[in-house]
Amino acid sequence: MMMGVAVNRLESSVFFKTDEPEVIDTRFGKITLQKNNAIAFPRGLLGMPNRFHFFLTDFPSTKLQRFKLLQSLDDYGLSFITLPINLQNDIIMAEDLTHACAELKIAPENLVTLLIVSVQRLPGKTVISANARAPLLIDTSMRLAAQYVFPTDRYQVQHLITT
After folding, report:
1. What is the mean pLDDT of each run of 10 residues along the chain (163 residues)?
2. DSSP state of 57
3. Is the separation of the CB atoms in 153 and 48 below 8 Å?
4. From the centroid of its chain, how far is CA 57?
5. Contact, 5 vs 111, CB < 8 A?
6. Which residues pair with 29 in a beta bridge?
7. Domains in the chain: boundaries
8. Cβ contact 97:85 at 8 Å
9. What is the pLDDT of residue 115?
10. What is the rounded radius of gyration, in angstroms, for the C-alpha atoms of the chain?
């Protein structure tokens, strides 16, 4: 799966430099965030309707380079591991993402898609899955995002990434 295009567009389109970075401690380590680079979720996230502002950054750990950290700016104790995917990917059909874009009025060229990741540590192994049923769709031109729930059971809430 190629993620470089989405991540590069995200970093160049969603973020811009600021003179006032803030370093915070997260459960994953220290990160530097810039509040003026916030991504707004006007309707919040599923189960968290009062968390509207987030910041997307690289993981503090180089072992997890394929993932991004979505840090809440409303509650520094809240963050999500996310997996960026391109419009053409092996998890969600491009037609479904294009339809979701149309519903949310996001131009496909401005779309960045993130899947929320869960990590289960089991005896002898770690299982990583991603929520393909309810991806996060970000409009990089507007810095607005929504969690879109597909009205089909084609996609799993726990799509296996690795074991």
Report:
1. 42 46 81 82 90 88 85 91 94 96 95 95 91 97 95 94 75
2. E
3. no
4. 10
5. no
6. 26
7. 4-162
8. no
9. 98
10. 15
Place of tokens 């929520």: 131
b (16+ CB within 10 A) / e for 82-118:
bbbbbbebebbeeebbeebbeeeebeeebbbbbbbbe
Question: Which CATH number is 4-162's, of 2.40.50.100, 2.30.290.10, 2.60.40.1190, 2.60.40.10?
Answer: 2.30.290.10
pLDDT attached to residue 5: 43
Distance CA 67, CA 115 (A): 10
User: Global pTM?
Assistant: 0.84
Query: Cα–Cα distance between 125 and 128 in angstroms, integer?
Result: 10
> What's the token pair of residue 53?
């502002």
